Amino acid sequence: MTALISVESSGTYIPLPPPSVYEATPNEVVEAERTVEGDMVKERITIKRSIVLEWPNLLSAQSTQVAALTSPNTFRVRYFDPETKTFQYGMFYRGNDYEHKPLQSADSRWDGSGFKRWVMSMSLVEV
How far apart, in Å, are the Cα atoms of 102 and each of 3, 36, 51? Predict the structure, then answer.
């Protein structure tokens, strides 16, 4: 079975764990202005993808791997595009909404030694 999303590392695409939330949406980059008559003039510059990912219950090793794969300034991604129903490739960066925190449980300690599971969410934005 092919992974929904994979990140390239050293020439190989590494599959990310299956996310509980996966949204790949197009974002239109435009330049728009109004004429003196008030008419809208809009030029589409390009369309870029944004991918929203959430994992509510990752093992510690999985969360470390996802964090490491998505930490470079930019990285190549192979992802499923629901609009075209095909796998696409692109250069992405991790958005500012990145969250990586321990999943609280009764046996967890705040010094980090008891955290076996992690909650992670992020958006990937096409360059």
Answer: 25, 55, 23
Q: Rounded to 5 degrees, what are φ and ψ at 83? A: -70, -45
- The string of pLDDT tens digits covering residues 18-34 is 999 999 999 999 999 99
Backbone angles phi, psi at 2, to 5 degrees: -85, 135
Q: How far is CA 57 from CA 88, 113, 114, 115, 124, in A?
A: 27, 17, 15, 11, 19
| Domain definitions of the chain by residue range | 5-126
Name the β-bridge partners of 48: 27
Rounded-to-integer distance, Cα 85 and Cα 13, Å: 20
Encode pLDDT of 60-81 as tens digits: 899 999 999 999 999 999 999 9
